[in-house]
Amino acid sequence: MKQNKFSTLIVTVQNKPGVLYRISGLIRKRRFNIASLTVSATEDPDMSRFTIVVEGDKETVEKMAKQLYRIIEVIKVNEPEEDSIVARELGLIKVSTTKTGSKGEISLIADHFRAKVIQVTPEYMMLEITGNEEKIQGFYKNMKKYGVMEFVRTGRTALFK
Amino acid sequence: MKLTGAEILCESLLKEGVEVIFGYPGGAIMPVYDALTRYPKLRHILVRHEQGAIHAAEGYARSTGKPAVCLVTSGPGATNVVTGLADAILDSVPVVAISGQVHSHLIGGDAFQETDVVGITAMVTKHNYLIMKASEIAVSVKEAFHISGTGRPGPVVIDITKDAQFEKIEFNYPEKINLPGYNPTVKGNMHQIERAAEFINQSSKPYIFAGHGVLISHAEKELLELSEKAAIPVGTTLHGISCIKRDHPNYIGWLGMHGNLAPNKCVNKADVVIALGMRFDDRVTGRLNDYLPHATIIHVDIDPAELGKNVKVSVPIVGDVKEVLKSLLPLIKESKGRKEWFDMFKDYDKVEYEKVIRPEIYPRKGPLKMSEIVKKLSDITHGKSRIVADVGQHQMIACRYYEYKKHDSFVTSGGLGTMGFALPASIGVKVAKPNDEVWTIVGDGSFQMTMQEMATIAQENLDIKIMLLNNNFLGMVRQWQQLFFDKNYSSVSLKNPDFMKLSEGFGIPSEKVTERKDIEGAIKRARKHKGPYLIEFVVEKEQNIFPMIPQGASVDEIRIE
């Protein structure tokens, strides 16, 4: 079995106070190792959606799904196969532009990755990129040589195809 | 007519069939206490500490099978029930704990006696609520009772702000509940049940592990039918004790760390294990790597999260034990008996009887043994008393030497191992079953954790018999220090109060037994006395409980000395 395998859980919950606390508490209590967790509203105002990326194999994910179902507000836990979903995350990156000629190079790479320039100052450029984890990681690697001042990413959110 | 939130709470409890509340008043719950005087149908039992309230509620719930109520104030009142909530969630006990909370506009400001009750209790409850409007009280009570009492039972907390208790609105009790995320599976999957039947029918050494779920689902009859029809030995977990009569030939004993020799020794020889309403706790399994190497495991539990949690299961069946057994039974072939398999148990039984049991229950000389006292109680009460045991050596003795002949008659703290549980829990048991004989078996250490509840027993004049087994030690810890820490006794010796004077101070008659010849007479005097009675038995100081599976050892490495 491959080390550091990650799986995605899509959890539909009733939009009530305290659900995030219960879910994060469960993850801590049962010692699941998560890579990311995003929460958002859905098309139904009474429901919210958690997208949780957890480290572990199928068995771990199944155990986590069963534990999640013990939370009263949890309506549905999906454990989708990677090819059955479209998953995206958002990255924001602040790259130093003090080196001569770097602005142009960064813009070229950004174009290639379809990243958007959102702020330009004499010291840095801020860029926005969406895509899957590999794409964002790839972009980040390309930016490293210019000097990454700050880099944040949201964690994945997903929809079924 | 408009009612206050406090009155709505009382009305809602009545709608849920509540008759008794175990509680303790305080500032943030005063409107409810004020209302209670107008609801004489809600009997309130005033405990002496909130931990006592929740353990009493646990005892009540376990004796009635219905959610029991405890009522406390905010802050320390609520934090004092946390131990009981943790106890109830591990032992699947339906309790609805209602706490007062500070005024809603004060929440978050560190007000006097404010604690974040939903935050603190979230990890030890099945569900919890913070109520800040009177309009939310009725629906929360209805949901709380449903959640607490169905599926795998468990504790639910309702935290109600003081302003919500004062607020006046029209009272309407909801007809329906809307919990789209909560729908426990009761009937088992038929395909899995058929697979289970096939495995059972083909097995030569099947083995039933009967847990608390058998009692919770009232599946005693179905369990017996399965065991008798297919000739399957039945071992029970700690909480499964009393789901089958002690003298039934198919009952082969108690599983786990201080259980019987035969059931533990034979576990790993089984080819099919039928685990009913139990959770493969580490005290039952011993070292997991060596556990059940040859067995196909059929696991029935109403909580899907238990299936596959600790051991790999071949046939997982989510459902109520009784319902699943009802579907399974017609598919089971009648067996002509499995003499060889049963004989294997009998051989070990003989060893345990000669090496452990006989010397324990029939000692000729030396100090009193806890085992002989409990065995005597068992004989005198014909195994038909309700027994409430605390936590420690005396608890293991209560499991081993009381010969349970009445279904669901044993209450103890299993999962959490809460010292101080028994005395308050026995209050709940007696209030639930006033016509049944109730004995609480406590050690000198555990008794002193909640002995203030003697005052509650005296005030309510509850006919509870207290068997205090005093060895002037924290006996179980001492035993472990002897066996695993080179007899380095660290903080286990107790200089105890004079229990006779203490009992007298509470107004409860008592006597002290130091001689073997007085055991029987004392128990008989206690039974004859109408009302509470305490007997202190001064017992052997360094008695050890055997058999024992040392922690981390395999089940078949069980020791008898």
TrEMBL record, chain A:
Residues annotated as domain ACT: 8-82
Database matches in Gene3D superfamilies: 3.30.70.260, ACT-like. Chain A, domain 2
GO biological process, alphabetically ordered: isoleucine biosynthetic process; L-valine biosynthetic process
GO cellular component terms listed in the entry, alphabetical order: cytosol
Domain of life the protein comes from: Bacteria
Reaction it catalyzes: 2 pyruvate + H(+) = (2S)-2-acetolactate + CO2
Keyword Isomerase: no
EC numbers on record: 2.2.1.6
Top-tier EC class: transferase
Pfam family, one: ACT_AHAS_ss
Pathway this chain belongs to: Amino-acid biosynthesis; L-isoleucine biosynthesis; L-isoleucine from 2-oxobutanoate: step 1/4; Amino-acid biosynthesis; L-valine biosynthesis; L-valine from pyruvate: step 1/4
General function of this protein: Catalyzes the conversion of 2 pyruvate molecules into acetolactate in the first common step of the biosynthetic pathway of the branched-amino acids such as leucine, isoleucine, and valine.
Family from the record: Belongs to the acetolactate synthase small subunit family.
PANTHER family: ACETOLACTATE SYNTHASE SMALL SUBUNIT (PTHR30239), ACETOLACTATE SYNTHASE SMALL SUBUNIT 1, CHLOROPLASTIC (PTHR30239:SF0)
NCBIfam families registered for this protein in UniProt: acolac_sm, PRK11895.1
Protein name: Acetolactate synthase small subunit
Automatic annotation (TrEMBL), chain B:
Needed co-factor(s): Mg(2+); thiamine diphosphate
InterPro entries associated with the record: Acetolactate_synth_lsu, AHAS_TPP, DHS-like_NAD/FAD-binding_dom, THDP-binding, Thiamin_PyroP_enz_cen_dom, Thiamin_PyroP_enz_TPP-bd_dom, TPP-bd_CS, TPP_enz
Domain Thiamine pyrophosphate enzyme TPP-binding: 390-537
Record text on cofactor binding: Binds 1 Mg(2+) ion per subunit.
Protein name, as recorded: Acetolactate synthase
Domain Thiamine pyrophosphate enzyme central: 193-328
Organism lineage: Bacteria, Candidatus Gottesmaniibacteriota
Pathway membership: Amino-acid biosynthesis; L-valine biosynthesis; L-valine from pyruvate: step 1/4; Amino-acid biosynthesis; L-isoleucine biosynthesis; L-isoleucine from 2-oxobutanoate: step 1/4
Keywords per UniProt: Amino-acid biosynthesis, Branched-chain amino acid biosynthesis, Magnesium, Metal-binding, Thiamine pyrophosphate, Transferase
Entry GO MF terms: acetolactate synthase activity; flavin adenine dinucleotide binding; magnesium ion binding; thiamine pyrophosphate binding
